[in-house]
Design a protein that fits this description.
Blueprint lengths: L4 E3 L4 E6 L13 E3 L1 E9 L2 E8 L7 E4 L19 E6 L5 E5 L3 E3 L3 E8 L11 E4 L1 E9 L2 E8 L7 E5 L18 E6 L9
Parallel strand pairs: 1-7, 9-15
Antiparallel strand pairs: 2-5, 3-6, 4-5, 6-7, 8-10, 10-13, 11-14, 12-13, 14-15
Length: about 200
């Protein structure tokens, strides 16, 4: 194969090389798990096919040709091929944005949490977009991150926090899906002034 580690959107070209010309070798002689076989073609002792991994899966894929599935010109049955194994990760990473508040007073701060469905080494503060405030103190690693959102002073505009699709990747290189937007209602500070 030309690719033994498959992610979202990828396929593998499989190559079947026989030690002599068969008379009966075909696509039905190939068994696969973890995906589908298509575009089988070839002749003589050389054949190719396309393997497409199962969507939303991390189950390893296998390709086999069992013994006794085809014959050579003399009628001899083939021996079993060595199984081909491929790793598969066709699951897109997700991120959930949380906070301890649902509303903010003008100028108040909220601690944000970003929980990823799997580890990422490319998620950073630049992947987070906010309106109605400023992001700071971004920290974390793996699948857990935090940051501080400071609401814009002298404004009662709703604050929003977003992580758009395709801003970071998982270990396999799959792009993330978009997070559900976090919305924080901003209310005027009605507390009376007091000595402290």
């Amino acid at each position: 194969t030309d690719d033994s580690a498959l992610r979202i959107g990828e396929t593998a070209t499989l190559i079947f090389t026989l030690n002599e010309t068969p008379t009966t070798f075909g696509a039905n002689d190939v068994s696969v798990t973890g995906g589908t076989l298509s575009n089988f073609a070839g002749s003589g002792s050389s054949y190719t096919a396309t393997f497409t991994p199962t969507p939303d899966s991390t189950t390893a894929a296998t390709v086999n040709v069992a013994g006794g599935t085809f014959t050579d010109a003399a009628g001899n049955n083939n021996t079993a091929a060595t199984q081909l194994d491929m790793t598969v990760d066709t699951v897109a990473p997700t991120v959930t944005i949380g906070t301890q508040y649902s509303t903010l007073r003008v100028g108040e701060r909220a601690t944000l949490s970003f929980t990823l469905s799997e580890t990422s080494t490319t998620f950073g503060a630049g992947d987070v977009s906010v309106t109605g405030g400023i992001l700071s103190n971004f920290a974390g690693s793996g699948s857990s991150y935090t940051a501080t959102l400071t609401q814009t002073a002298s404004s009662t505009s709703t604050a929003t926090v977003n992580v758009a699709a395709s801003t970071f990747t998982d270990a396999a290189g799959n792009n993330n899906t978009a997070a559900t937007q976090l919305t924080l209602t901003v209310v005027p500070d009605t507390s009376p002034p007091a000595f402290v």
